[in-house]
Task: inverse folding
């Protein structure tokens, strides 16, 4: 059996009311445009009837598949698990709350298949969100553009399309789903595009995100920037800082020795304080010690990069319509 044209990866967290409408809408769009597909609903530890709804939908439509976590791991874990299970030529992610429109799917698919993009990110140019979400989002998007060099307006838009090769060669963990375009760029997938997409008002339930996500998002941005630039050459980072610190310590030390030589052999004016009683002596000592520590850190980091990093295992407690693609590190309880 050939792979479908599109794999939809849809993280789900307590969205029982919207799932049936979303599944029907997706099916209608795919049939209209003659596209084969699979819809992978990843239940990220829902406490309502979301999983039961996914099972019911899968029984009625073989294109719908489900993966269930034993608890809430977060959106990044749901996306990573869906990416590993996806079989489609193009992988499209979207939220399950009906704020992302499935009508955008064919255009996103064509941008990957016909225009040759590696990744296309949606841009919610007109957002139906409160100012408490839109203002911090604009700030983080501006910072991310500056640090990454990727000219996108909306890094956090859940509606994105990927060439299959992209999702099979990147790892998303922690809260890194906001920066998948940055991860893809560091992995060598640099043809990244953008498409203005419709952003609908939430029809059911309420948002699952609080203010703390912005704090985590900023820390993750620093992490992904560092990892992207120095993951394979950590000595370039730590070594550079070590050299600067060591040179500063050496300069302070040279100043102390010069003052001593000047007082004894040139000016013959005794120093008011001994070398070890001067603050600059301790600055020199601290700078040299820090420089050595940074060098050691760089060597240790280089050794670590030579080791294969094991990926985090997510405990899948149930599945429907998915079998051998979940082999390996993903485990099924029971």
Result:
């Amino acid at each position: 059996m050939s792979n479908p044209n599109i794999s939809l990866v849809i993280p789900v967290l307590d969205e029982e009311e919207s799932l049936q409408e979303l599944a029907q809408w997706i099916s209608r769009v795919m049939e209209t445009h003659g596209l084969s597909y699979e819809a992978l609903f990843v239940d990220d530890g829902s406490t309502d009837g979301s999983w039961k709804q996914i099972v019911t939908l899968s029984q009625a439509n073989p294109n719908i598949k489900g993966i269930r976590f034993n608890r809430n791991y977060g959106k990044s874990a749901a996306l990573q698990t869906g990416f590993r299970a996806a079989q489609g030529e193009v992988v499209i992610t979207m939220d399950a709350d009906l704020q992302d429109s499935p009508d955008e799917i064919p255009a996103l698919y064509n941008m990957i298949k016909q225009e040759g993009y590696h990744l296309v990110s949606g841009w919610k140019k007109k957002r139906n969100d409160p100012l408490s979400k839109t203002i911090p989002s604009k700030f983080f998007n501006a910072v991310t553009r500056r640090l990454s060099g990727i000219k996108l307006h909306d890094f956090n838009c859940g509606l994105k399309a990927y060439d299959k090769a992209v999702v099979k060669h990147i790892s998303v963990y922690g809260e890194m789903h906001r920066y998948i375009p940055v991860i893809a760029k560091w992995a060598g997938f640099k043809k990244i595009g953008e498409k203005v997409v419709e952003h609908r008002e939430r029809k059911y339930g309420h948002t699952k995100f609080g203010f703390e996500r912005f704090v985590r998002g900023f820390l993750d941005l620093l992490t992904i920037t560092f990892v992207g630039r120095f993951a394979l050459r950590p000595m370039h980072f730590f070594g550079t800082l070590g050299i600067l610190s060591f040179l500063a310590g050496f300069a302070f030390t040279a100043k102390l020795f010069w003052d001593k030589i000047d007082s004894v052999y040139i000016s013959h004016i005794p120093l008011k304080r001994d070398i070890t009683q001067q603050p600059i002596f301790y600055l020199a000592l601290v700078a040299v010690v820090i420089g050595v520590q940074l060098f050691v850190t760089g060597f240790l980091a280089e050794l670590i990069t030579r080791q294969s990093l094991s990926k985090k295992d997510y405990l899948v407690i149930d599945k429907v319509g998915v079998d051998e693609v979940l082999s390996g590190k993903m485990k099924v309880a029971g």
Summary: The CA atoms of residues 17 and 204 lie 7 Å apart. The chain has ten helices and nine strands. The chain has a mean pLDDT of 84.
